[in-house]
Write a structure and sequence with these properties.
The protein is 49% helix and 19% strand. The protein is α+β, with helices and mostly antiparallel strands and 183 residues long. It has 2 domains: 6-88, Arc Repressor Mutant, subunit A; 95-180, Alpha-Beta Plaits (2-Layer Sandwich), CATH 3.30.70.240.
Amino acid sequence: MSNINYQKIILKTVVAVGLIGIAVVAPNALQVVKQFSPNKKKWVNERYYLSETIKKLLEKGLLEKVRKGNSEFIKITKKGKEMFAKYELGDLEIKKPKRWDKKWRVVIFDVEEKKRNLRNLLRSNLERIGFVKLQNSVWVFPYECEELIFLLKTNFFVDSDVLYMEVNRIENESRLKEFFGLK
């Protein structure tokens, strides 16, 4: 199998269209796959992998079947939206400026216990982006990232539970400056 992420392609296709006929998903996703796999002989295999991936996404509960009249469609589930958000955020990077503006970006959150998986997902994404944990729900980063945090909040449906701040000074910040290689 090639390095193409079929789950990502299928989830993006379903998110873009909304409710989509099962027979329509594979051809649309296949158009994306063809961009990465110009060898026509592989397209037969790609169809098989796409079909199998759709089955797996249904089994995992990331997609669900919906019946309208005589037609069968699939749509993305809440769990699928969370997975899609992971993929979307994985594509984003924060560009490091040439000079640090001497401001700290602090993200604090209070996500309730019943949303523990969401809270852990938020933490893991902050860590992946490059934030440093000051406390369990307090994370710091030296570069502008407000748009990315906004995207995190909206993708994980935690807008009111997460607060983004820019601060000029953090007590004992020399450890943070050293960690980030700042002067």
